[in-house]
Amino acid sequence: MQDAIREHLERTGIIPVLRAGSAKEAVALVEALAAGGIDVVEVTMTVPGAVEVLRELKRSYGQRLLLGSGTVTDAKQCAATIEAGAEFVVSPSLHPEVIAVTKEHGKVSMPGALTPTEAITAWKAGADIVKIFPCSAMGGASYLKALKAPFPQLRLVPTGGVNLQTGASYLEAGACALGVGGDLVNAAAIAEGKPEVVTAAARAYLGLIADFRAKSAAGKTKAS
């Protein structure tokens, strides 16, 4: 189960980090993202009624949407989000008890780390993917590349400062997927009654992933 979830995350390549001022706004954001073709979303615990939002999204979308919970910092919260439908659990920091509960339920664990010590500690504690946050504050793609050099086995997802301008550089540096916040999950656009802005951004991000993969495949063909 964990492999299938991880493969889904990496196949989509984009993990929208959902922050919203209300449950209604959160659901509207997900609808706009889904309209743009994105089938993954991370519902952070900062969203009012986040667990109920997860439950509602699970009812509405079923298997068509891979749900994750974000900003999870304790075991009880972790278990509640999994019960509500989360298939992957994300933290901004490293909490071994959250990793343990996630793994016990057969879900994908994505703790946050920043330093080399934190990243390898998270991996050894059972993380399936390590979220590097805030990546941009440490130098962005060049920092991610530096982490991958001694730890090529780590699956890394950068978040913080990831946008359409920087996304390709993170992928080139070795990111297995991109965690994207406000540049994609634009709550202001929803508040202004413009969900099409979010939908267009979703398509643009998926286009970025597709373009990068096409160029990488072409490069490998030439090399061979």
What does this structure look like?
The protein has 224 residues and is α/β, with parallel strands linked by helices. The chain has one domain: Aldolase class I (TIM Barrel). The protein is built from ten helices and nine strands. It has helices at residues 2-12, 23-35, 50-61, 75-84, 96-104, 116-124, 141-148, 167-172, 187-191, 195-223; strands at residues 14-18, 40-44, 66-70, 88-90, 108-110, 112-113, 130-132, 156-158, 178-180. The strands form two sheets. It has a six-stranded parallel β-sheet with strand order 5-4-3-2-1-9, sandwiched between helices. A three-stranded parallel β-sheet has the order 6-7-8, covered by helices on one side. The radius of gyration is 17 Å and the shape is globular.
Q: Looking at CATH, which topology would you report?
A: TIM Barrel
Structural class: alpha/beta
N-to-C SSE series? HEHEHEHEHEEHEHEHEHH
Helix fraction, binned, reads 40-55%
Q: Kindly estimate the percentage of residues that lie in beta strands according to DSSP.
A: 5-15%
The average pLDDT value, as a whole number, equals 96
CATH class: Alpha Beta
Discrete helix count: 10
Please describe the biggest sheet, giving its number of strands, its sense, and whether it closes into a barrel: 6 strands, parallel
Jot down its keywords.
single chain; 224 residues; alpha/beta; TIM Barrel; 6-stranded parallel beta sheet; 3-stranded parallel beta sheet; 9 strands; globular
Topology diagram in text:
Elements: H1 2-12, E1 14-18, H2 23-35, E2 40-44, H3 50-61, E3 66-70, H4 75-84, E4 88-90, H5 96-104, E5 108-110, E6 112-113, H6 116-124, E7 130-132, H7 141-148, E8 156-158, H8 167-172, E9 178-180, H9 187-191, H10 195-223
Helix pairs in contact: 2-3, 2-10, 3-4, 4-5
